Amino acid sequence: MNFTLYISDFAGVEANCRYPRQQEISCTEDLKAAAAFDHVCVAFKDCYRKRENFLSADVLVMDCDNTHSENPADWITMEKFLAILPKVSVAVVPSRNHMKPKDGKCARPRFHAYFGIPDITDEQHYTELKRAIHRAYPFFDEAALDAARFIYGCPVEKVLWQDGETTIDQVLKVGDT
Fold first, then answer.
1. Fewer Cβ within 10 Å of end Cβ, the chain: N or C?
2. Contacts of 104 by beta carbon, 8 Å cutoff, 6+ apart
3. In a domain, 92, yes or no
4. CA pair distance 42, 56, nearest whole angstrom
């Protein structure tokens, strides 16, 4: 699995909209290095993060905060997630709030799933694929489905990398990419 992320020079700067550094990701070490900085999965016109500036993407990220249940037995861990999609190419990275209390909820597994996909050059198609993933796997955060979503950078020690036989769009049979 190979994909491209676009990196800022900052970590934790929500107001930033510029992602000028293109980073090719092909292994856990590449992803660890990129995840230390705020980043996006989309190439944007003039490197400026805005839905209308969508150019292309070969990866999409989904956010799992495990807010779908207060029962720890229902929570999806990074390892459980890989078991749900054993043949799909995906990389899983803990989020900055992994195993920390957040928004009045107790500590729980929180992670990002990076799905390598065929190159998409249409923002609506990209967003529909994210929505289709959420419909199939509703434990993903419904508020994080837009094409211009950025991911906060944070130090990452553990990355789970699964070179699968297929991509998520093929599993869900969502349109032509």
1. C
2. none
3. yes
4. 6
Sorted by sequence, the CB contacts under 8 Å of residue 83 that are 6+ apart come out as: none
Q: What is the pTM of this model?
A: 0.95
Q: How many angstroms separate the CA atoms of 18 and 45, rounded?
A: 10
Domain count, the chain: 1
The reply to whether 177 falls in a domain is no
Q: What is the pLDDT along the chain (177 residues), one digit of tens a residue?
A: 999 999 999 999 999 999 999 999 999 999 999 999 999 999 999 999 999 999 999 999 999 998 888 899 999 999 999 999 999 999 999 999 888 888 888 999 999 999 999 999 999 999 999 999 999 999 999 989 999 999 999 999 999 999 999 999 999 976 544
**Residue 37 per-residue DSSP state:** S
Residue 44 CA to residue 144 CA, distance in Å, equals 18
DSSP H or E segment with residue 22? strand 21-25
Q: Where are the alpha helices (DSSP H) in 2-56?
A: 28-35
**Do 23 and 95 meet the contact criterion of CB atoms below 8 Å apart?**
no
Q: What is the residue range of 71's domain?
A: 3-172
